[in-house]
Amino acid sequence: MSSVQLTPGQARPGWAALLSAVAVLSTAFLLHRHLAALPGGRALALSLAFGLAFGWLLQRSRFCFYCVSRDFIEQRDARGLLGILAALAVGTLGYHAVFGAFLPEPAAGRLPPGAHIGPVSIVLVGASFTFGLGMALAGSCISAQLYRLGEGALTAPIALVGTVLGFVLGLKAWNGLYLGHIQEAPVLWLPHHLGYEGSLGVQLLGLGALGWLLWSLHRKPPAPTDVHPRWWRRRWAPHVGGILIGGLGVLAFLRVSPLGVTSELGSVARTLADHQGWLPSRLEGLDTFKGCVTTIKETLWSNNGSLVVGLVLGAFIAALLAGDFKPRWPTLPEAVRNFAGGVLMGLGSMLALGCTVGTLLSGIMAAAVSGWVFLVCAGLGLWLGWWLRRQPWRG
């Protein structure tokens, strides 16, 4: 009797990978029980569960804003960007349904509780551009750095340390920028001006137009060399990942808070900087905004911290089962580039009150103009960073 030989792309997960995945999942289960027993444990445990699902989805669908943008710039492969648009469309539908239930009339002066709707100012423009530039230099946005941490990417901790430093720089610059530009900046929410029906229609029309443009420019990529990967190794179609992430974003908003990954990093940075005496005694207006804002940490666990831990664990489990856990030491230039990119991302996300998840994804789902501004300006910064990485620098 002949035996079937599996190619590397078809090979089943080894026992070591399976046992490791079970161990990580068991750890997550025990952590879930521990969090549930703490004060506010229901939200903490839910956040961990949402993070596990988010990390799994990010890893399996390669939901990385820089990576899919690079695919389109270099190869005209629009599938990843269309997946992001799918997430935004699903999230827009879900968010507007939630808004209609909890805030029937979008009266001026009232905003849906917790939604990531930020001020629109020149600071947002510059911060978004800076974030996009840093994302390109580091090779991933912050959420992708976190899921790649679960894949064993040793550049990710370097970029995340840089991100914390960038947050400290943003906190030190906050008061001057707030008093000069942000304090009087409008907080623009489309339902205030268009109503829910108009806001929903404009957003879906805009997303549809972007989708049509991307599809018209799309070039079919060459067929993969591994034509029959097993289901546990196969990357999910970007639109499938996008639809599921959009649905997860709505569920997270309904049950705990909008998706975002920088609040905990920023809070760690703020707490460390405050203890070192690097910050002014008062950060003007910062705690009045919604979004991925920072706080002085007084407890070990927070909702956003639980989500981030869950994200890394979920990506770790997915990577182990798919054979994607492949640690590799970075070269010195890679380490420097990732650190510098992390600093720019931290600075940008601090001043923009979020990143590609909190301000762009959750913001656009919530019909916040700040989310659309972030999308455009971060995209321009990303393109510049991509161009800089392709230059034949010497010395």
UniProtKB/TrEMBL annotation:
Which keywords are on file for this protein? Cell inner membrane, Cell membrane, Membrane, Transmembrane, Transmembrane helix, Transport
UniProt source species: Aquabacterium soli
Q: How does it sit in the membrane?
A: Multi-pass membrane protein
Domain of life, per lineage: Bacteria
Family to which this protein belongs: Belongs to the TsuA/YedE (TC 9.B.102) family.
Its protein name is: YeeE/YedE family protein
Where is this protein found? Cell inner membrane
Cellular component terms per the entry's GO annotation:
plasma membrane
- The residues that cross the membrane are 12-31, 43-59, 80-102, 122-142, 154-174, 194-215, 236-256, 305-323, 335-354, 360-388
